[in-house]
Structure formats: structure tokens, C-alpha cells
Specification:
The complex is a heterodimer of chains A (554) and B (97). Chain A has 18 helices and 20 strands. Chain A is α+β, with helices and mostly antiparallel strands and 554 residues long. Chain A folds into four domains: 104 residues, Sulfite Reductase Hemoprotein, domain 2; 150 residues, Sulfite Reductase Hemoprotein, domain 1, CATH 3.30.413.10; 93 residues, Sulfite Reductase Hemoprotein, domain 2, CATH 3.90.480.20; 137 residues, Sulfite Reductase Hemoprotein, domain 1 (2-Layer Sandwich). In chain A, helix 3 packs antiparallel against helix 12 and helix 16 crosses helix 17. The radius of gyration of chain A is 23 Å and the shape is globular. Chain B starts with a strand and ends in a 14-residue tail after the last helix. Helix content of chain B is 25%, strand content 30%. Classes of the chains: A alpha+beta (554), B alpha+beta (97). Chains A and B meet through helix 14 of A and helix 2 of B.
Chain lengths: 554, 97
């Protein structure tokens, strides 16, 4: 993974010290809250319902065991013993004290981490495929381009005060695990007929109160031109994006209002002016950054491990885990292991300091000391020898991180909701917990198969409900929590925005409603169909009829 | 309907309530209740002064009611602030009772 050079280290430490002075000035009254708020937000510090919340960047989800140990330390010393994995592949702490924050930032700097641009109207953490560099079907490792974007976008003087926040995602695989079509900019690496790598550039996707699927503005952008083209897009957005209404300020609204063609034309014109400038990436620079992401020292191993087959016959739980949580690796004899942070009845994505330390230890022992945070709020150990899978599984199971549900109904994405978030309208975690308990039986869960449930506690859609196969949106109706159901969304290469199915449900009713939808699917599915396939084949009517046939609807 | 003033303490962000003596307490049970609008206005002014004095952030007047002898905010959001996350009853004020 990328390592800071002297400049990076010094810069991040200077920023932590600068925040120490700003905090002192706030505490002595030299700065008012109005003056201080933008400064703390620039350092990822929000004020939430119970305390300050600190959001720490995990660049494109890549984390070292040393960094995870530091996060465990912060959780234990400065928080209440746990942290939360976010949909931007970051980590949040919920109980931070303002007076401790400068010390935390200094501690983070010591392990090459920071919170800069984890909030505010700037370019946020670039997200990517959590299997980057390891996926069997990968065309090109996206991490080196994520790192180039990180360096270009960090404190970019022109783009520090955009009309609104800006999110970029990059995938290098045909199977999109980075939701690139619902980002401000999505980049899909592929090769042209000559075998050269380049990007499909997708702009104007997004969720929130007005969901849009991004539009392709360029089919093939040579990798050398990545930064100049991004700069052209951001310039157009910065100049033309709306600043009069925060709900219409994202680039998706600009692209929608201008029309894709007109927007594209503006970008191309802007690009013509700067494409031959200093932003063209020299091959040496691409190679220099690429070297940080060179494959680890894989051993020459056989892909066939007979002992695994024996154990999976003897241990059904191990078999279920292999089926759901372990993915094929590009290197013979290795596997990608998803670490489920969605135990039955747990808050999705919440991980204790003890678990963080234990996983760091497992990363050191079994996966070259590195991990990934996924946008679906799990962890990944990317480079595990197949011969180590059983030992790893036993250790993960012992710390509650081997639930065999990755990609299944109980592996839901869920925002913190009204239990923590000052923007939320309704609670989301208790609903996720109830659903997780209702569908706790691993056999039933596997029978239902791939099903993505995503839940948000308000219209801002941090839980990505628009693109869940099943989506839940929490709202407040005259003081009562109300949950609206959407069906048919998808966040992969076949991105779709889900459709609202009908009137909402109360907290208890929504769990029954999910069960009703699942039962309808099971009754209609044909051989090999996933939930989303059946939904796309039959449409929403059968689901709606069954849902509202009884008196479940409120 | 009675009111209380809720805020976050500046230095640590913890939720606090304006107390009868003019200070701030962490439990809603110790908060000062405004029974009429004049008193509520006076308490809002005290909250604003405390914000100017770097004691608290975002003071807000919220409606409360008495349920079985306990003061409870009428809105769920404020009720959760006054107790702690409903999904972690081992944390927050509810754990300190």
C-alpha cells in the first residue's frame, strides 16, 4: 500500500498541530462556534446527538494492521471502545471530546492517517473495489489511480469550496463493487482494442433526496489524461453548479438540468484548454505510484487444497463461511476473505476495539498485514493462503466475525440513524437488528440467496436505500417512525434505482413486510434466479399485492 | 407544556441541560423547567449567554412532559439525546442512572 513520504508526514502533522491551536482558540473564546465550525469540519469533526463524531479517512478502504491497532487504541482511550465502518470505506467514532481531538489527530498522523476532507464541500475519500489487486476477474488495479486522485484532490486550492461535497469511485473489475454509477464521478477501468488501459468516465450519479444514475461522458480516457479530465469536470461544476440551494447543488443536478450532451461539451472545451498542461501523468509517475501497489510476495502454491474439502464436509459452519465469505483470488493457492461485521443482532458496521486488535493480528498472520474496509461496512483480508482458511475461520469465529452472511439479506448496509445522527428522521439500527434476528437461520438465509438490503434513517440516503434490492427509508410521521419500502434497486454494473412499493410501515410492520417480500420472491423464483432477477422478471405488482393483501400496510 | 434548555457542552460535546442554579447538568432530571413563556424566554437567554461564554454549543428550548414522575422530552430525537442510543443501553446517560 501507499507509504507517506517526508512531505506527506510533515504536512499531516502540521495540520494536526494547526488544529490544536484552533481548538485552543475556540476553548478560550477567541473563535466563536460560527468561526470554528468550518475548521473542525475540515478536520472531520462533526457535532452529533450525543457528542462529537470524528470521521477518519481510510484512503480507498486500504488499511494496515498498524493503522487498525491505532484505531483500536483511539476507540479504547478516547471513545467508548468501538468504532463504526462507513459507506465511504472510512471509520467513525461517536463519542469524541473536542479537547481530545488534537491529540487524536497527532496519533493518527503517526500512522499516516488523517481526517482532512472527510467533511465539507470538497472532494471526499475516493472509494474503490475492496478486492482491488486480488480479484480474479480484475482488468487493472484501481488503487494506483485512487492514490493519484488522492494526491491531486488533497487541499486542491481550486476545489476546496465546491458548491457541495464531491465523491469519486474507481473500479478496475467488470463486476462493479464500488457503485461507480451512483457517484459524482465514477471511473471504470477497461482496455481498448489495442490493449491499453483507460477509463469510462461516468458523471452525475448520486443518491440523497434526488437519486440519479450517472451518465457516461467519455467511453475511453487514456490513463495519462485522468487528472486533466477530472480537473476539467470539476472546473465546470465549480463554475456552473448551483450555490443558491444546497439540495440542488450536487453535480447530478447540474448534469440533469444542462443535459448530458451540453455538460459533456463544456467539459471537453475546458479540457482542450488544459489537457496538454502539467496534469498529464508521465509514465514514470504512474510506475512510481504503481510500485506501492505491487503484489505481495505470494508463494508458489497449488490451488487445490484437499484438506479444505474434508473440513467443510465435517463442519457445516465452515462450509457456509467458505461459500458466502470467501472469494476466488487471482493467485493460485490464495483466497479473498470477507470479514462480516454483521453478526446476528449486531449494529451493522460497529466493531469493538478488541475485535479491531484481533483482526489486526490476523491480518499480520494471514494476509501480509493489510486489510480493506468495504462500502458495505465489512472488512476484507485480501491475500489469504487457502491452507490457512480453516485456522483463520476458527479465529474469526472466536471473535464474532465469521457470520456466513456476506452478500445475503442480513449483510445489510445501515446508516447510524436517529440513535446517533443529528440529521436522521428515524432509527435504522434497531430495524436492521430485528431483520437480522428474524433471518438468523443460516440455512434459510442461504436458501434466499444474494439479496442486498440497504437502509437509511433519512432522505439523505447515507444507507444507500435507493440502490438496495430491498431498500428501507426511515421517516418521521407526526412523531412516529415510519419505514418506506423500495424494491428493485441495484448498485452494481446493472445499477438501478428502486421503486417505492406503497404506504410505509411501523417499526414492527417493516420486519414483517420484509419477510412478506422474501416469501413472495421464494414463491415466484425460477431456477438459479436471485431476488433481483425475479423482481426484474415479474415487476413489483406481485410483491405489492402480497404486501397489502393483508392488513399489514399502515 | 413545560420546556427545558438542552445543549452540547463545548469541550466534550456531552448533552447537558440548564439547571435551576444557572449551571448545566448532564441528567434531564436535574434540569430547570420553564412552566410559562416568560420563563422559557429567560432560559433561552441564559443558554445564549452560556454559548457566548464558551460553555455550550447549540442551546435549544425543547418541550418535555412528565411521565410517571420522570421528565421526558416529547420528541424522540431529544428523548434519545437525554438518554443515549436506544441500541446501546450500556452507554450514555441511561447507563449512568
Amino acid at each position: 500500500m501507499y507509504r507517506y513520504d517526508e512531505f506527506d508526514s510533515d504536512f499531516v502533522l502540521q495540520r494536526a498541530r494547526q488544529f490544536r491551536r484552533q481548538t485552543e482558540r475556540r476553548l478560550t473564546g477567541e473563535l466563536s462556534e460560527e468561526q470554528f465550525k468550518p475548521l473542525r469540519l475540515m478536520n472531520g469533526l462533526y457535532l452529533q446527538l450525543h457528542a462529537y463524531m470524528l470521521r477518519i479517512n481510510v484512503p480507498y478502504g486500504c488499511l494496515s494492521s498498524r493503522q487498525l491497532r491505532k484505531l483500536a487504541h483511539i476507540a479504547r482511550v478516547y471513545d467508548k471502545g468501538y468504532g463504526h465502518l462507513t459507506t465511504r470505506q472510512n471509520v467513525q467514532f461517536n463519542w469524541i471530546k473536542l479537547e481530545d481531538t488534537p491529540a487524536i489527530l497527532e496519533q493518527l498522523a503517526s500512522v499516516e492517517m488523517h481526517c482532512i476532507q472527510s467533511s465539507g464541500n470538497c472532494i471526499r475519500n475516493t472509494t474503490s473495489d475492496p478486492y482491488a489487486g486480488a480479484a480474479a476477474e480484475e482488468i487493472h488495479d484501481p488503487r494506483l489511480y485512487c492514490e493519484l486522485i488522492r494526491q491531486w484532490s488533497s487541499l486542491h486550492p481550486e476545489f476546496s469550496f465546491l458548491p457541495r461535497k464531491f465523491k469519486i469511485a474507481v473500479t478496475g473489475s467488470p463486476r462493479d463493487r464500488a457503485a461507480v454509477k451512483v457517484h459524482d464521478i465514477g471511473l471504470r477501468l477497461h482496455r481498448n482494442p489495442a490493449g491499453e488501459a483507460g477509463f469510462e468516465v461516468i458523471v452525475g450519479g448520486g443518491l440523497g433526496r434526488t437519486p440519479f444514475i450517472g451518465k457516461t461522458v467519455r467511453d475511453f480516457l487514456p490513463v495519462q489524461q485522468l487528472l486533466s479530465y477530472l480537473e476539467a469536470i470539476l472546473r465546470v461544476y465549480n463554475q456552473l453548479g448551483r450555490r443558491d440551494n444546497k439540495y440542488k447543488a450536487r453535480i447530478k443536478v447540474l448534469v440533469h438540468e444542462m443535459g448530458t450532451e451540453a455538460f459533456q461539451k463544456c467539459v471537453e472545451e475546458q479540457w482542450e484548454q488544459i489537457r496538454e498542461g502539467g496534469l498529464t501523468l508521465p509514465q514514470e509517475e504512474i510506475d512510481r505510484i504503481g510500485a506501492y501497489f505491487a503484489p505481495p510476495a505470494y508463494e508458489d502454491l497449488s490451488d487445490s487444497v484437499p484438506a479444505l474439502e474434508t473440513t467443510r464436509r465435517e463442519e457445516p459452519a465452515f462450509d457456509a463461511w467458505l461459500q458466502n465469505n470467501v472469494v476466488e483470488h487471482k493467485q493460485a493457492g490464495y483466497a479473498i476473505v470477507n470479514v462480516s461485521v454483521k453478526a446476528v443482532g449486531a449494529a451493522p458496521g460497529d466493531i469493538s476495539a478488541d475485535q479491531m486488535e484481533a483482526v489486526a493480528e490476523l491480518a499480520d498472520r494471514f494476509s501480509f498485514g493489510e486489510l480493506r474496509v468495504t462500502h458495505s461496512q465489512n472488512l476484507v483480508l485480501c491475500d489469504v493462503r487457502k491452507t490457512d482458511l480453516e485456522a483463520l475461520w476458527r479465529r474469526l469465529a472466536a471473535i464474532g466475525l465469521a457470520t456466513p452472511n456476506v452478500g445475503l439479506l442480513t449483510d445489510s448496509i445501515c446508516c447510524p440513524g436517529l440513535d446517533y445522527c443529528s440529521l436522521a428522521s428515524a432509527r435504522s439500527i434497531p430495524v436492521a437488528q430485528s431483520i437480522s434476528e428474524r433471518f438468523a437461520d443460516p440455512g434459510r438465509l442461504r436458501d434466499i440467496g444474494e439479496l442486498q438490503l440497504k437502509m437509511s434513517g433519512c432522505i439523505n440516503a447515507c444507507g444507500h436505500h435507493h440502490v438496495g434490492h430491498i431498500g428501507i427509508l426511515g421517516a418521521d410521521k407526526k412523531g412516529e417512525e415510519l419505514y418506506q419500502l423500495t424494491l428493485g434497486g441495484s448498485a452494481d454494473e446493472n445499477t438501478a434505482i428502486g421503486k417505492i412499493i406503497g404506504p410505509g410501515f411501523d417499526a414492527e410492520g417493516i420486519v414483517d413486510a420484509i419477510e412478506n417480500v422474501v416469501e413472495t420472491y421464494l414463491s415466484l423464483r425460477q431456477d438459479g434466479e436471485r431476488f433481483i432477477d425475479t423482481y426484474q422478471r415479474v415487476g413489483r405488482d406481485p410483491f405489492k399485492e402480497n404486501l397489502y393483501a393483508s392488513d399489514q400496510g399502515r | 407544556m413545560p420546556w427545558v434548555v438542552i445543549a452540547n457542552r463545548l469541550r466534550d460535546g456531552i448533552v447537558v441541560f440548564l439547571a435551576p442554579g444557572g449551571g448545566w447538568v448532564e441528567q434531564i432530571a436535574g434540569s430547570r423547567l420553564a412552566g410559562n413563556e416568560r420563563e422559557a424566554e429567560e432560559m433561552v437567554a441564559l443558554g445564549q449567554q452560556a454559548e457566548a461564554d464558551q460553555e455550550v454549543v447549540a442551546p435549544d428550548l425543547i418541550a418535555v412532559e412528565e411521565r410517571a414522575g420522570v421528565i421526558v422530552p416529547t420528541k424522540r430525537r431529544e428523548a434519545i439525546r437525554a438518554t443515549g442510543p436506544s441500541v446501546r443501553t450500556d452507554l450514555g446517560k441511561q447507563a449512568e442512572d
